[in-house]
Amino acid sequence: MSSTFGTLYRVTTFGESHGRGVGAIVDGYPPRVPLAEADIQPQLDRRRPGQSHLTTDRAETDRVTILSGVENGLTLGSPIAVLVANKDQKPSDYKEMQFVPRPSHADYTYQMKYGIRAASGGGRSSARETIARVAAGAMAEKFLHVICGVEIIAWVSAVGNISAPEVDIEKITRAEVDRTAVRCPHQNTASRMQKEIEAAKEEKDSIGGIITCVCRNLAAGWGEPVFDKMEAKLAQAMLSIPATKGFEIGSGFAGTRMRGSAHNDAFIKKGDRLGTRTNFSGGTQGGISNGEPIFFRVAFKPPATIGRTQETADFEGQAVALAAKGRHDPCVVPRAVPIVETMAALVLADFALRQKARG
Questions:
Q1: Residue 10: strand pairing partners
Q2: How far apart are CA 316 and CA 320, in angstroms?
Q3: pLDDT of residue 89 exceeding 60
Q4: What is the structure's pLDDT at 129?
Q5: N or C: which end of the chain has fewer CB within 10 A?
Q6: Would you give the end-to-end CA distance of the chain in angstroms?
């Protein structure tokens, strides 16, 4: 099983959904950077369950503890270990699922690959695994901001068939995003999205959505062609998040309907650097950051675990009716916003260190 991400900023995550806890070990964190649990906790609070009626009601505070690598408020340059304990485990909710693979979940594929699986809550395939990513990514956000001035902001731009108007990616703030429970900065659209999620929950069903993310103040030159291009690593990071089904950067699929004369980003002078008039490239060219904001979108499917009874089959192939008893989100995108931000931070932190290593 591959649980390590990154080249110089290396993150290894561990833990299962209904085990003792989940955590991460970060190797390669720069020394002498101010870091405390208070720098990590806000993103975990934005990700945690039970924060509104739009999410699962699993009651977890998700308090993070730094176990190593920090002394007197400064990083030492040695591996940093962080841990979040599981408090509200209910493995009994998943008793029936020991014998029945949940539709569109990872139960069947994990069993086929390993010959064993954590039947309670999905184990490593559970979204609870993302706690460790968020913790490690929040740490990456800290040094990216302190050392490089980088800002990463994500928001919900669509739920089902409801799409928000475009926002100014140069000005959008995290405070604007967090003004609504659904984490859409456009108030009227957020209200419609909320009603759509509430309707799915009431019907014991689920619904998908899209998260848009912008990364600002990057220097030109980050990215490692040809296989570790900026957009390639961002795509890998985003598609490793549970429930993701699509990734596009810049103009994305809409760009296929444009002519090159309209799509090309012409260069202009911006202060003391060369910039582009438009940004259909999404902040990268040739797999390398060009100094413009990097922006991309991530598609999330409807959560696989739903309260409705579903006709399916057990591992023996016998027809069964399955109604999930576990607690689950009717839509994952409100809680996935900090996951997208912190996974982007892991990618950018690694590229920042790799560029610095060039001297």
A1: 27
A2: 10
A3: no
A4: 93
A5: C
A6: 34
Tell me if 280 sits within 8 A of 251, measured CB to CB.
Answer: yes
Residue 261: the pLDDT is 98
Which CATH number fits the domain that encloses residue 205?
Answer: 3.60.150.10
d(CA 132, CA 298): 20
Domain housing 127: 4-356
Burial of 317: CB neighbours in 10 Å, binned 0-12, 13-18, 19+:
exposed
DSSP 199-248: HHHHTT----EEEEEEEESPPTT--BTTTB-HHHHHHHHHHTSTTEEEEE
- Per residue in 14-29, is it b (16+ CB within 10 Å) or e — as a string? bbbbbbebbbbbbbbb
Report how far residue 242's alpha carbon sits from residue 333's, in angstroms, rounded to the nearest whole number: 11
Identify the helix (H) or strand (E) that includes residue 321. Answer: strand 319-322
Q: Tokens standing for 140?
A: 């990456």
- Tokens, residue 152: 């990463």
- Six token digits for residue 76: 């030492």
Using a cut of 0.90, tell me whether the model's pTM lies above it: yes
Examine the pLDDT at 96 and tell me if it is beyond 80.
no
Number of domains comprising the chain: 1
CB-based contacts of 188, cutoff 8 Å, min separation 6:
none
